[in-house]
Design a protein that fits this description.
This protein is of the alpha+beta class. Helices cover 45% and strands 24% of the residues. The protein contains two helices and five strands. It has helices at residues 7-39, 46-65; strands spanning 69-73, 76-84, 87-94, 102-105, 114-115. A hairpin with a 2-residue loop joins strand 2 and strand 3. It is elongated.
Length: 119
């Protein structure tokens, strides 16, 4: 498993995650609008759409550079490699969650999310 995060280390990244997520949400919305407009025949240049796609890709790559796994982008779903009770898990954060409160086993994915035990 790559770099692992404690719950506190993951929580310490949240301000940066929220800031990057806010930018991602704006770019994602702009991309949807531009794509729909283009598909409806509006005069939206393909290079403008490609620039938005590149910007979104760069923002997602920024999360990966921090050691996070990007599991989805609409909504944004991030996994932090971690360990709980000697078992490899992912701390799981979903767009708009205020804290790192969830985890799932590596082999269970999002459907296996459980609330982290109280400290």
């Amino acid at each position: 498993m790559p770099r692992t995060f404690t719950r506190d280390q993951a929580a310490a990244l949240l301000p940066d995650i929220h800031e990057r997520t806010n930018r991602l949400v704006a770019v994602r919305a702009d991309l949807v609008g531009a794509t729909r407009a283009h598909n409806s025949g509006a005069d939206v240049a393909i290079p403008d759409i490609k620039a938005l796609e590149a910007n979104m890709s760069d923002l997602l790559d920024g999360f990966r550079a921090w050691g996070l796994d990007v599991q989805g982008y609409a909504p944004l779903l991030l996994d932090f490699p971690s360990e709980l009770d000697g078992q490899d898990v992912f701390l799981c954060w979903l767009e708009n969650e205020a804290a790192i409160d969830w985890y799932h086993r590596v082999d269970h994915g999002f459907m296996g999310r459980r609330r982290l035990p109280s400290r």
